[in-house]
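Lab notebook, bench 4. The sequencing result for the construct came back, and we need a structural model before the next group meeting so we can plan mutations. Quick request posted to the team channel:

Model the 3D structure of this chain.
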Amino acid sequence: MTRTYGWMCVACRSFRETHRHVAACGTCGQHVALYDDGSCRLCHRQRSLVAHNTARRTGDVSLAEANRYGQQLFFAGMWHQPGTGKRPYQKKTTPADMRLLTPVTYRQLTLLEVPRDLSAGQRRGFPPPPHPGREAALMAFVADHAARHGWRPSKVERIRRAIRIMLGIQDTPGAPIRRSDVALLSSIKHSAAVVADVLDDAGLLDDDRQPAILAWFAISTAGLPALMRDELTEWLQVMRDGSTSPPRRKPRADSTISTHLRWALPTLQQWATTHDSLREIGVDDVTTALPADPLARYTTLQGLRSIFRILKARKLVFVNPTARVRAPQPTPPAPARVDLDTLRADLNSEQPATAALAALLAFHAIRVAQLCHLQLTDLRDGHLHIDGQVIPLAAAVRQRLSAYLDHRQQAWPRSVNPHLFIHARSAITTRPVTSWWIRHQLGIAGQQIRLDRILDEAHATSGDIRQLMDLFGLSVHTAHRYAVTVNTVRHR
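Done. Here's the predicted structure in token form:
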């Protein structure tokens, strides 16, 4: 019994579908759905109970006589016959026609965009889906999707309830469901991500979410002059979408864009107090604004150079004031040593996932992003095949991976997720785990363990750049950084 079904059990729900006449019961007076004889279901159940207790036939006991001294309330599901089992509620009045899953081409416009409060729907009930045929088709699709992903019956019913809610609150019945509306399910403890996956698989998801960087960009540049904001908006567009006109430019990742803007933003805010546009910025303004700290000076110049290069190519500024300004990159400090006691605790953890993750990082320095996307097929014959590398796994790593695989099979035997590392939520999907999940499995940041392992190998090989490249897949520049740290320690 849930709010989705109006606090009614399966039997009462089915009864109200087949008995549409609602009036005052001729026996008890309640205003509910009635049988053809004018009495409600509870009165009939009471008569069956009295007949059973008195060993008489139901027809021998009148409704008035059975309900004369009150009624016995029942727990939901108590009237199932022994051996039949409990089956989830499923509409039988409408056949599932999968052709109804084709989205409609029109959209119903709304007068006002009012925020939806799904918690109010929990208290007062959600509107039913307006098209029973489309609902039945989507429920059948959910069953097929669940069978492919090995879901439990309780999970299937929960996703079905969530999808019924989405169908009921649509502005345009039959149109793809907006991802922003699906996100509201999280407020009532439903898995919005899983519902979105199902709708996307059915071709009924409209991903209308705004990229996070756009909202962050609008907030970060809100205090700048209008002309300066317009120029930065042009830079943002080129960085995200690239440029096919000369000078051509490939799109950059959102993380790269946000990093460049964070580096340049303090200087831009300082200029905003005296300038309205970046066209007014000259070489002297740039050199004066650069901080004295070598690392801050380098990062600030890199951020400003990224902006002015694009604006100059788009002819939004007359000159690039950063073209002849130099700020060499300082030598980064050597990575800090890890806490060996914490690392040993992770390697010997009772959690198989923690031990396996720590072993791959501590022995082979696998990147965190690679750990997220490792697949079961990447482990073959005691070797790890990843990004063109074939890594022979150490005995301690093979032992921990074997224990984790046994745990994975016992915990999620029906999971079809192809990734090596999964958890309770990702097991019913095909999505990889996130770096956030890996960080919370370990007592130390995974990147710190990886850097310490590479640094240890650099000292063991006396800074052999070729060996560092072969073992860990590093570039020449990165391997040289670790070799420099070895030489620095040697000179000391």
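Confidence is low (pLDDT under 50) at residues 81-87.
Will bring this to the meeting.
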